[in-house]
Structure formats: C-alpha cells, structure tokens
What does this fold into?
Amino acid sequence: MPAPNDSLIPARVNPDLEKERRAASFSIFEFQCWWHGGAEKLKEKREIENYLFKDLRDGHLHDYLSHEDLYNLAVKDITEASQKLRKLQALRNPGGNDIWPKILYSNAVYALAPGGHPFSTHITMFIDVIFNQGTPEQIEKFGKPAANCNIIGTYAQTEIGHGTNVRGIETRAVYDRKTDEFVLNTPNLQAYKWWPGGLGHTANHAMVVAQLYIDDKHHGIQMFMVQLRDLDTHMPLPGVHIGEIGKKLGMAGVNQGFLGFTNVRIPRTNMLMRNAKVLPDGTFVASPASRLNYMTMVYTRCLIASFSSDALLQAATIATRYSAVRRQSPINANEPEPQIIDHVTQQHKLFPEIANGIVLFLAAQKVWEMYDLTLKEIAAGDYARMTDMHIISCALKVLTTTDASFGIERLRLSCGGHGYLSSTNLSTIYGNIVAAYTYEGENTVLLLQIGRYLVKSWLQLTQGKKMSQLVSYLAEMHGQRQMLQWNDTWEYLVKLLQYTAANKTRLACENLTKRVAAGQTQEEAANNTGIELTQAAELHGRQFVASVILQYVTGAKSNQRSKALNLVLENILELYLVQTVLRHMNDILRFTPINDTNLRSLQNRLEVALKKLRPDAVGICDGFDYHDRLLNSTLGSYDGNVYERLFEAAKQSPLNQKPVPDSFEKYLKPFMKSNL
Amino acid sequence: MPAPNDSLIPARVNPDLEKERRAASFSIFEFQCWWHGGAEKLKEKREIENYLFKDLRDGHLHDYLSHEDLYNLAVKDITEASQKLRKLQALRNPGGNDIWPKILYSNAVYALAPGGHPFSTHITMFIDVIFNQGTPEQIEKFGKPAANCNIIGTYAQTEIGHGTNVRGIETRAVYDRKTDEFVLNTPNLQAYKWWPGGLGHTANHAMVVAQLYIDDKHHGIQMFMVQLRDLDTHMPLPGVHIGEIGKKLGMAGVNQGFLGFTNVRIPRTNMLMRNAKVLPDGTFVASPASRLNYMTMVYTRCLIASFSSDALLQAATIATRYSAVRRQSPINANEPEPQIIDHVTQQHKLFPEIANGIVLFLAAQKVWEMYDLTLKEIAAGDYARMTDMHIISCALKVLTTTDASFGIERLRLSCGGHGYLSSTNLSTIYGNIVAAYTYEGENTVLLLQIGRYLVKSWLQLTQGKKMSQLVSYLAEMHGQRQMLQWNDTWEYLVKLLQYTAANKTRLACENLTKRVAAGQTQEEAANNTGIELTQAAELHGRQFVASVILQYVTGAKSNQRSKALNLVLENILELYLVQTVLRHMNDILRFTPINDTNLRSLQNRLEVALKKLRPDAVGICDGFDYHDRLLNSTLGSYDGNVYERLFEAAKQSPLNQKPVPDSFEKYLKPFMKSNL
It folds into this structure.
C-alpha cells in the first residue's frame, strides 16, 4: 500500500510501451527531426525545453486552488517565465525574438503556466497594434515600454452586446477641441468592453476600439490608447470601471475583463494615427488604405490553426500511449486482457485523429509559407494574393478549431473513465482550445464569409473571369458534367472532394439565385441559403487540405525522407483521404454515383489503414517529441507508468492531506445523528 | 455605470422574449401540462420547486472556491437539502418516496447542490443493493440505517486497472473459518478501488465487490459490506487506505474516492447472501439465479437516458432564449441587427437539438413503461422480455449520452463567446452529463454488445427462428430485396431507417462469417468487424426511437391533445425524422438508391421545418417549465435580462471584491519595474 510521502512512480518504462517503440517500422528519431525541421532544430528545441522546464511547480496545483489564488499564481508563473525567456533569448540569440516573446504564445507556455496567464493579449495584439498602426512617436512612447513590459496592455474591442459585428460597437470617443482631448464614454451596459485578456486586474493600459465623433459627426471606428490604472498603486483611474468577467470553461488564469468609461479624457495624440488622423483643429484625415490590419487577422488565424492542430496531436499522444498500456476486455476468451489499442474500435478512435492532426498541422505550415510570400508581395505593392490568404486562413481556422475541439474530446472519451480526471490534462487542453471555436471570428460567421466568396467566384466563372490560385479548381470543375470513372488512387479521392466542393458551390449559387428571382433581397437569400453556404465552405477547406497533403507526401520533397518514413506518411495520407471521403459521402453521393463495390472497397481501405498504422502508432506520437511537462498528463507521460501517476496526482489533492474533512463535524455528523 | 451593490437586473421581461411568447402558435400552458403529465402534476411540481428553491445560496458560488472548500460546501448543501426533502415528503405524502429520496437523483438536485454532491451512490446503488441482494437480517441491520442516513455508504466495484470488465477485478475476500470472517486485501496498485462516489471523505461504509476465495478455491464475484471509517470520529479504520481521486472535468462535489485494504476483517454475515451463500463451515452455496441484478443495471440506464435527454433540453432552453434576445449581424444592410434566432444557420444549431431532446426524452418514457411491464412479468415468472429490455436500455443510454453530450456542447458554442462563461451553466451541465458517456458501461462497449446481439438475431432469422418484439423489424426486412419506392411520408422515413439498420446488421453478419471462414476465431472476427457492429447498433437505436415517436405523435393518444399542440409535435417529428435520415444518409445510400430530386426534397423539408419551428421555439422551451434555479444560467433565465445577469454574476467573483489583487505588489509591480 503506497505510503503518503514516497513516490510510487518506478524508474522503468512500461514494458508495453517499450515493446511498441521497438516494433515501429521507421526511425522515431528521423520522424522527430523531420517534424521539427531538422536535427539541429530538434536539438535546440530540447535544450530550450530542458532549461525552461526544470524546477517548475507541480503542473496541477492550479486545479485545486480558488479562482482568486489561481489568478495570483498565474501572475507569479508568467512573470517568472517571462524573466526566464528574456534571459534565455539574451543568452542564445541576443536581439532575436524566437524565444522571447515567441514562446509566450506557443503551446509551450502551458508548460510554464499550466493554468493559463494574463499576458497573451499584451504580447500579441496590444504590442502589434501599436507597432503596426502607431506613428513613430507613438511607437517610441507606448510601443517600447510595452515591449519591455514596463506597461501591460490589452486590446479592448468586443463589447458585451457586440461581438463579431465590429461596426455595432457603441463605446464613443468624442473630440474636444478646447482641450485637444478625446472624451471616452460607455453609453449603456451593452457597450461595456467584455472579454479582453488581462483586462480584469492585470493590464494598466488598453487599446480601446471606439466610434470616433468630431462635432457630432461620426468618423467610423478608431483605436485609442487609454491608461486604466495608476502605474504605481494599480488603482483604477477615475471614470474607469473595471473588473474581471468571472469564471470560464477554461483559460483559468487569463483574467478576461470588462471595462466602462465615464468621461475619461485622453490626449488627442493617443489615437493611433499611422493611417487615419485627427488634427488639432478637429479635421479628420481619412486613411488612404488600411488594408494592412487585415494581415494581422490572417496572422492570428494561422497561429490558431497551428496551435489547434498541435493540441489535437498532444491529446492523441496521451490517448495513444494510454491505449498501449491499458489492458481490458479479452478479445479471445481465456487469453489475457489485450492492450486496448488492439481493439479495432479503439484504433478507429485514435488513428483518424492522429492522421487528421498531422495533416492539418502540415496544411497550416503550407499556409504560413503563403503568408510569408504574401507579405513579400505586399511590400512590393502587389495585393493580389490577399483575398486567397484571407479565405484560406479563415477556412483553416474553422477546420482546425472544429476538428481539434471535438477530436480532443473524442480522444478524452477514448480513455474511458480515467479521461475524466483533470490530472490527464485532456479537459484542460480542451478548455483552452475550444475557446478558439468562437473567438477571432466565430466559426459559422467565417464559413458564411467563405461561402459567399465561393458563390461570388462561381458567378464570375460563369462570366468567364479568371480564378485566383486557390479557387482555380472551381474553374476546372465548372465545365465538368460528371465525375471521372472511379479509381482507387489518392488523386481520385482528392478530385472527388474538389468535384463535390465545386458542385456544392454551384448548388448554393443556384438556390441563392432562385431566391433572389423569387423576390428576396440578396441578403435574405444569402441567409436562407446559409446551411448550404457553410457546407460548401467546409468542403472548400477540406479539398485544400487534401491537395496540400497529397502534394506533400508524394511530391518532390519525399526524396529527402527515408523510404520507411515515406511509407508511414503514405499510410497517414491513405487514412486521411479515406476517412475524409467517408465523412463527406453524404455530399459526394449527391453528385457522383458510387456503387456498392466502391463503397465496400473504401470501408476495406479504412480497416487496412488502421491495421497498417497499428504497429507505428506509439512511434508516431513519440515523433512529435512532446516534453512530458508540456503534456502534463498522468496518462500520457513517456514512461507510461499511468496507474502510479494517477495515484501520485490524487495524493496531491489538498483534501487528501487530512484524514477527516472540516465538514464532517460541522455538517455530516449532525446529519447522520439527526435521524432526519 | 453599475454600482457594485445595486442589482442591475430590471423587473421587466425582455421585450423580444415577450414578443416570442405572444407569437407562439399553441398554448404554452397546455404544452407544460402535457409535458409534465397533467395540470395537477404540473401544479405539484411547481409547489415543490417553490418550496425547495427559496432561500438558496448563490448558484455559482462553488465556481470560485478551492477544491476543498467546494467539497465542504457540497456536504453542507446536500445535508440541508436532504433535511428539506424529508420534511416535505412527510408533509405532502408521508411514507412515499416521490420527494425523498427521488428528487435527490433527479436533475432538480443540481438546483439544491449546484456543485454536485457526494450522496448519489449512497442513495441509489448502496441502498438498492442491500435491499435487493441482502437477507432480511441484512436489510434490518444495514439497509434501514442506510435509508435513514445514519450510515453513509458507497458501491465499490471499479478498480483503477479494471473498469468495464468486471471479471477482471482483483480485490480479494478470503474466508477464515477459524474466526468466521472474511479477510479483504488489495493485492496491488491496479486493484485499488477507484471512482466510487462519496468514497473519498464522505462514506463510512462501502459495498465492496471482490473475488471470493474459500480454501484457495475461487467462487466468483461477491458483495461485502465493509465499514470504512469510525462512526464517531470519521477516522479511517485500520487497514483501510482511503482518499479522493482528485479534481475532475465535472461532478465537482461528488468526492469520488480510492480504497485499498490490508487484512481488513469483516464478519461472514457481511457478505450479501440473498442469493449465493457461505456457511460457517466454509461451504459455498451457489445461487440458483441472480438475474435480478440485471434489472438494476437496466434501471440505471433508463435513469441516465431520462436525465441526459432532459439536460439536452435544458441547454436548448438556455441557448434558444439567448438567441431570441441577442441581436447581431444585420441580414439586410441598413436594417437593425436581427435576433440571432432569425439566422437560418442559428436555427440549424438550435432546433435539431430541441427536436432530438424531446424525441429522446419521450423514447425514454416509453422504455420506462416497458421496464414496469417487464418487472410485472418477472414477478409472474416470465423472463422473456429481459433481453429486449437490456438491449434497448443499452441503446438508449448510448444515444442519449452521446447526443446530449455533443448537443449540449454545440448549443454552448451556438451562444458564441458568452457560452464560455461558467455563469451560463452550460459547461457545468456538460461536465456532469458527459461523465455518463463512459460510466455504467462505456458507450462503445455497449454498442458492441448490441451489435453482437443483432448479428446473433440475424443468424437465428436465417434459421427461421422467431424474433422478439424489438427486433421483429429485422424479420420484416430480412426477406425484402429492396426498399420500397420513395415517398414523402413519415412512415417511409422510419422504414428507411429500419431497412438500413437491418442491412447494416446483414453486412456485419456477412463480414463476420467471412472472417471466421478465413480462419479467425469468433472473437477475433468480432473484433475486426467492430466498426460495422457499432454502426449497426446505433442504427438499431435510431429506428427504435423513430418508430416510438411516430407512434406517439400520430397514434391514438393524439386525441388527448389540441390540434395546435399536435401541429407543433408534428413539426418536431418532421424535423427529427428528416435530420436523422440526413445524418445517416451515408449508410442509407449504401442500400437504397435515392435520386437527386429526393435528396433536394429532404434538404427542402429540413429548411421548411426550421422555418415552421421558428415562431414556436421559445414557447416550446417554456413548455418544459424549467425553474430558473434549475437552469442556473445568466443566458437562460425566463426574463431574458442576459446582459444584466452576466454583469451581476461577474460582480460576484471574489477577484472583483478588491480593486488591486494581492499579486500586484508581490509579482507584477517588481516585474514591470525590472526592465526584465
């Protein structure tokens, strides 16, 4: 029986996991190098992690704290982490930004601050906006102290009554010519800022998005730098009503806040004026083009796509390792209970998520390449690729957050009862990721944007216009009356998805046109065609991801990988394509007659793909090279000592520090004696 | 600007909600009476709720507490609630059990103990097992004090390394003839009991499921009453290693625990001996039949089906009311922002969940009727219906927990960012319900059981055997070469589901047979056919639910409802059938060629159904008559004052009680001044 203070965790690695690792058909180290961009980068990553993750507090302490204590701990965690990161940046690459601040908005931050932290909005949006939209003077005055963390800010756009529709926000900034100031007011409860990270009790500044008025004339939405708290006492300044919005499903330490203004005055020069300007006499100078803000949104969505698919792979690693250790339910009576990973239904829960995570992560990398290219082209005055970039970053944000959210939860459930324990970290990963389903553009709103763009493109096609690169498949499919004869190649499955996406677009287009012809306004018709528009949009995303991964696995770069690794990737590709086609069969069959033989062959390919991945599953997950501290999971650690770790984690619960809880004498004993 | 201590919540009802209620096409009161089994029962329910829910603590206090404080509060909540319930039972219906203990395991308990509580396992399983499996002496000695809460117990079956496969458990009870005692031991870490509710720090007794050994001979699994803690001091008894298993995704106050034994001795008479017996000389008397335990599992699964579908409807009520109040994203430019419930994509998120929740709830009621009938038949010595009961209760448990879990989460996401706030209660409802996905038979394990039963039935059919009632559709479909010509009736859609379920079973059967013929053992073949078996099993459940609801809405009892109410139910039926058929189209198209015209007509019917439900959605949710305290939601309250309630809830956060948090002087200020 375990004594309270001795660690139960043996030094050995679970023999089932060892066996799995030995049995992998490929070099796990080659996979790790490939996944992390080369042996040098892998080495660097490991050195950084070893430095950052040593001597950290218990990874689940925050689970047991009160909301208030958890926040205070999060501030401790993140200030310490920031110091560490800055120091390491100076040590390893002075003047760079690859460690500080980049690691602060990577998944690795959860290893440093497992309960979340209130600095993200400061580090990303607040600082970015100043540097991108501020004048050189503003960058000097606000940007530099912000980058140096002498002030902590947040980005205050969303209001309690106004989310995605930014034009609807109501906070007002009115120019007062006499004092050369803006006066900020919150006209009603619905206009309160609500959600900005760190706003509650951390930030002393905010970039406030408000409606600008000069002499009662409205000049649209502008951004204003507002100091919220005294820099020394941290007390809220007069007229600033501020607090946190309360407990949430996840992001425990993020300290999201609310903010209202009563006649708060700021200097005219606190409006960000790189683009639009207000002169001292009250003249409003409109901006010639403010399209560049657009690329910040694209950037954020790419970031979300990367960390969401990465989180899905973290969950898959936890569930796969556990499934290799857990033994349950005999397959053959009188034989010992098998590893649950040998149950085909369990494989069907795990491997599609592994494949999907890998494919989405690689697709996000492809979009990052496009992003860099687009920035270069913009710098050269060429804006042509921006719409493609916008649409595909929206699509990838939707696919990754949807698939990661529901996938992580399916993986948690695949761990049976134990997945319900916080010490597995699965519910925390879920809580943090699912937030992205609704932030930075709610997913349905984004799908509708994509859908309307597709329909517009389709109409342009019928007018003979040329398509941009990412919708060129529409042109190819436009003239095609029917899908080619079935064949079993990967290329065929990709074409099938493209054909279906194009025909979904055509259908949405026809229905929309019909509705307009029947007298509905364009907008009403679009609303009534909403379901089909979102479906077409999703398929647009799917065919993109499928094309990217087909090219990635079978293209020229495969020469840089060993045959064994390529075989693994081909299995991943096969599983991904087959499951994606099966998943959308409902839509596919709408446009392409597929006979029972073909359907059986797909089902068979699915089962064969699961079987092929079985011996490599643990090795693939090792290939992501997640540090134990990052996974922070009793079920997912490298050594697979799952039961000992579950027990050790339980021992940490404060309730287990006393044999009899306080409520016994107070409530339970009198109750039991009362005879009711 | 709201002052800290005045309530912001106006007395008025939100005008948009008032408008919705006026516009409903039916009498909301009639719906409420129908849903609750008549005007008298509705009145009674409301009286009970008003009595129980007055003067309760804030419904979200527990969100802000530490894990330990939350547990102590849960004990306070549930002991107070139990006193209240007993008192009310004595007042309204002395000697009955409709209030105490029944309300303790209904959804209403969440209104009384919003953080969950540690008494459920005591009230349901512990007491039930004593009364069902104990001798009259044992009922006297243990059952009565348990029912009177003089002792608090739990049911300790699952072990950390052994879940669903009960035969695998390792805790041992060895009979010692010399002392007439059993000696209990936990042979290793994996044999620790793990998960029983209330075991951590609440229960002083446990019903322990262990392997019985007499003279080194194994006599299978038996149940043993074991005292765990001193009744007066609550200290764990010698040899009893006990504690809680730590924080979980939900069920915060349930205090699940672990339990290990080192030579713990209990009298021989503590083994439950209504069936199997151990005599003083060590003779083991096997039980002639212990089939009745089976009906306890059936009972528990019916209970899960009812409360899961009810929880889905709670979430639907919250999301629907919010969608009627929230205004966002203009449909027509230059018009005001519409209620978001007017967006078709939003309707597509809400109404299918409402329809599904209603239909599953009514199907569960039907299964309860069967359950009562089965009990009566068993009492008369007729066991014929038991297999049907077992299979259908498993199927309904799987469908309701799956659909409720993912449905609640989709509904939460339909509330956009605000759904992420704990004060909406959506994440708490989710956390409590999703647990049932893996407990009381993990869903995949249950589906495989059903699938194997279906295949067995199919084989019997081919041998000309008669089918029991709930699989008689298999016989009907067995000889049918192809599906009838498409028509637009509800009956056709139900038949389509049955035809597909039957053919899925046939296919699974064929593949299984093929694998056995190729040399696999029966068990290996079943494992390799796992995916298809689970799909057949799901469809078996779907066709059952569809048949029940078709009969319910169109059958003779419709005479007891007004025409207006029947029209609403017909819309629900239409939406349910269309969405279920669309959802399984992938499988349906495998066996039934459906042309594009029919598919278009289904899509059109879906859109028409959404449109028809639009004016009634809020009224239908009112029809469930959820008390505000039960919903416990800032977004879902009857008055629809959502922004004011969000704000009021935020004000309760302990962090908002001080302007500057403790971590400022300690961590944040030194950090900001440090220049890193």
Remarks:
- The first helix of chain B runs from residue 15 to 23.
- Chain B is about 55% helix and 10% strand.
- Chain B has a mean pLDDT of 95.
- The two ends of chain B are 37 Å apart (CA to CA).
